Amino acid sequence: MSPETFLVTGYAGFLLVAAVVLEWLSAHTHRRALRYRTAGFTYHEQHDHWECPQGEQLWPHEFDHERRLVRYRAKAHICNGCPVKDACTDSDQGRQIVRPLDPWPHSEAGRFHRGLSLMLVALALFVLVVGVARNHASADAGVQFVLLVLALAVGRWLWRDFRAHPAGFPAPTPGTGLRMTATGADGRAEPR
Q1: Could you give the residue ranges of the DSSP H alpha helices within 38-68?
Q2: Hey, which of 38, 40, 117, 127 would disulfide with 53, CB 3.0 to 4.6 Å?
Q3: Going by C-beta distance under 8 Å and a sequence separation of 6 or more, which residues neighbour residue 179?
């Protein structure tokens, strides 16, 4: 194998590993952040509410259609009288928990990181195509071709969720008492 082929395949391999590691780290960080924000609270999917460590319930308060998340809030008078309020929240309107409706790859941060990973894969593909065009020896082209197929597989895996963005999904129907928000001309959320 020529030194140029060795450098091309090494660099392309590094880019592919970086893309996969970036994807894994961003998803891992997202999961950790969600666990941190809801530590001690239990989500009951059947009734769509959260339960605090003191046994009180946080019910859906607002559905933000643009950001695709639901805000759950406890009753203010209950939180304000709670003995552990200082350790839980500083809000006088009750504890609030935000739950995203979409899985990690479809969130704004997820799409941003997925886009970065896809750019790394595209750069790896470009480097490999140029490498194959410059080095026609069968051993060199064979190694680069194998890495090219791997890069295409990684790119297809990343592209699958990137193009299936939930913007085309039907909007969930909010339950009774939920406020719908939209963004006004000034960029701030306003009730509908």
Answers
A1: none
A2: 40
A3: 61, 62, 63, 191, 192
